[in-house]
Amino acid sequence: MTNRKSKLTAKMVLRVVVLVSGATWAFGSAFAVDYPEPGDITAGAQAWVENCTHCHNLRNPNELRDDQWITSMFHMRLKAGLTGKETRDIISFIQAANATAAQERIREEAEAASAAQQSEE
Amino acid sequence: MKSKIVVQVASVVILNLFVAHTLFAAESLEELNSELEALKSQIDKLQSESVRNREAAEWRYSDSLVHLSGYADVNYIDSESADGQFAAGKFAPIFHYQFRDLVMLESELEIEVDEDGETEVKLEYLSIDAFINDYIALVAGKFLSPIGQFRQNLHPSWINKLASAPPGFGHDGAAPVADVGFQLRGGFPIGSTRTNYALYVSNGPTLKAELEDGEFELDGVEAEGASSDADGDKVIGGRFGFHVIPHLEIGFSLASGKVTVNEVEDGDSSLLSGEGARDYDVRGADFGYQIGNLNFRGEYVETEVGATSQGVAASEGATWETWYTQASYRRGQSKLEYVARFSDFDSPHNSRDQEQWALGINYLFTISAIVKLTYELNDGEQDSEADEDRLMLQLTYGF
Lengths: 121, 399
Fold this sequence. Notes:
The structure holds 2 protein chains of 2 kinds. Chain A is mostly helical. Chain A has one domain. Chain A has helices at 2-27, 41-52, 66-80, 84-120. Chain A is elongated and about 90 Å long. In chain A, 26% of the residues are buried. The mean pLDDT of chain A is 79. By secondary structure, chain B is of the alpha+beta class. Chain B folds into 2 domains: 1-60; 70-89 and 144-398, Porin (Beta Barrel). Chain B has helices at residues 2-61, 150-154, and strands spanning 64-79, 85-99, 103-113, 119-133, 136-144, 178-190, 193-202, 206-212, 215-222, 235-245, 248-259, 261-264, 278-291, 294-305, 318-329, 336-346, 354-364, 369-380, 390-398. The radius of gyration of chain B is 34 Å and the shape is elongated. Chains A and B meet through helix 1, helix 3 and helix 4 of A and helix 1, strand 1, strand 2, strand 4 and strand 5 of B.
């Protein structure tokens, strides 16, 4: 019985080694790229629409902070079978959209404050 | 006399000069004070902006990230044989801990209140994921079954467009729910075609038998992820999906291994002895297509368990089979969404077989805060639970 178990364990280890090394050999580098590497915003916009709507309605980029999107997108990378590049592209697009939205909000706030000040004067 | 006048004029001039100088100095001082205040204000503003920018950079560029997401739902269910009742539904927090783009821990809990008011807590999944390179991630631990799409991607209530899962895709169904082991998953392009894959090795499910007229027969496949493997033989499986065109994905799933009976329904499981390992095979296919405002999807899963002549619960094999197809429509950014789904579930037990039409209308307060009204037209064995129509009202929130 013990002999059979150890044979099975050896088989399992062999399977893991073969799977990981085979897949790694097939796809190149065994090391993740440096972090955070910026992606392509235009490609990210397209990948965002094509992949996210496959399962659910599109969420607004400003629903989460930039750092929250990083974790969410790595979670979605696994769920949707995205490549690392697609993941980085989508993160860059969402963060750019967030930055634009934030700048727009800051501009609106400044305009409102300025208008309030002028009416006081 | 003349010199007296000169002295008086000189005194007046000197006095005027002194007064004028004093007044001028006072005005300059006020201006300086005002300028100083303005400078102070600007420095304070710059300092607070600097702190904000530093804090923002810390959030954005931290090596370790923590994120809490998940979903929850509350329900009202009215079926043919029972009075309508409220149900607390489910709270499913998902924890993410990530170190750079190398490692992520993710875990989902499932917290429910049962009919007696007792709180049940389950570990839906818990895995440590290593991102090996752009195309491969190693996922180890308890994970949602990669067979098909519903369990791994569509089951959260804010994503599922109806208030219930299709028959056969829940617990004790034809489609596996979760497994314990490891998997390699990711995506890669083949020319202009995007593909994704998941390959896994796991403990596999266990079997539940029941005693019927003095003979054992298979009752169900417990495929919810067990941390034990009675037969020692692992299950190997996976799914391969590809995008034929940008918004159309087709996937195929397979799994194979051995499973063993380790539980007797409404009986004494300790009587089981020398149970033989049975063949276990799962086959599946799925598709999803988004065309404009319309979304179509469908899925087929068949689980086949072989016979054995060894052990107390030796019996014939059995097959569980289910499929569904669903269409949903949401016009642009409209708050309303319309859904229709047909499902057909066949099992070795006639009382559980079910054909179902489910019709739904959803109101989206936000993208992830949705109220769903679903009506199920169920057709099963007469007088069985599977034959009862149900009206469901569900409020769900994904966060």
